[in-house]
Amino acid sequence: MPAVTVSDILVLPRVTTAADAAQRPVSRVTDSIRTLEGAGFPVRRPFPGPSGADTDPFLLLDHMLAAYEPQEAKGAPWHPHRGFETVTYLMDGTFVHHDSNGGGGVISDGDTQWMTAGSGILHDELPSEELVMKGGYFNGIQLWVNLPKAAKWAKPRYQDIKGGKLKLLSSADGGGLVRLIAGDLGEHSGPGVTYTPITLAHVSLSPGARLSVPWSPEFSAMAYVLSGDGFAGAENRPLGDAKLATFGPGDVVTITAGKQQNGRTGQYEVLLLGGAPLREPVARYGPFVMNTRSEIIQAVEDFQAGRMGSVPATHLGGEA
């Protein structure tokens, strides 16, 4: 998990919280389901799931994790989206993206691809030719962020956020690296531009280290464990590999790494995420997320009629 890092974490700005800030308690811990996505690549999916956890404004979180042999790597061939945003963040491996709006590029270690489908778009996400030919380790996440009703018909947009653009921060004890992808942690802001206000960060905690971050009381708050063992909340609720903690009301989110870490990085790797709940009706069908059933029917008809764009001929053969 190379992701973005620094040689000396102590030179980074530190995330601090007010002494009288209210800790957000853990309201629920859920496990991920294991399933296949796209052309058949394995994912761990903490939500949506049978728990019914309140993840608004997020729709789906897939953790893509695989050790591929040569010729095994798979991706997601051309498919449509409407009504939400896809955020793909890679820690290991390489994806190549194309879309019918002209966006595209290569995302690899520490990069983020942020695609706003809005009114409708076609795209694909495929492993690089090198990864297919040689095999290798692949580790990344894809997050679906719902768009408010007023933005569901926005023009499609593509953001290519290279790892070097992330805001790097340190925990107050100097034992944790925070990569802020989008939103705010106190006075610090990430580079991602969002329609729906959210906060998204990848945290690496050394064994025994603790991180407390200020969190908007209006936002939902979750912690998903990419790898390792540790604890969520000031109450130290156990939170291990592939599990999701959902937090209750308050101003501060806290996670703590266990004293023993046996993952590839030797650290407690956690995704922190939350956002302003939209509290709007959700109608969804596969790659379409709207507010009403009639809008879903319209999305299917628009896709079938080619009104969401067409596959560029120059992209039919693979990488651009």
From TrEMBL:
Keywords: Iron, Metal-binding. One of its GO terms (molecular function) is metal ion binding. Fe cation binds at H79, H81, H123, E125. Residues 201-309 form the Pirin C-terminal domain. The keyword Oxidoreductase does not apply. Binds 1 Fe cation per subunit. Its cofactor is Fe cation. Belongs to the pirin family. This is Pirin domain protein.
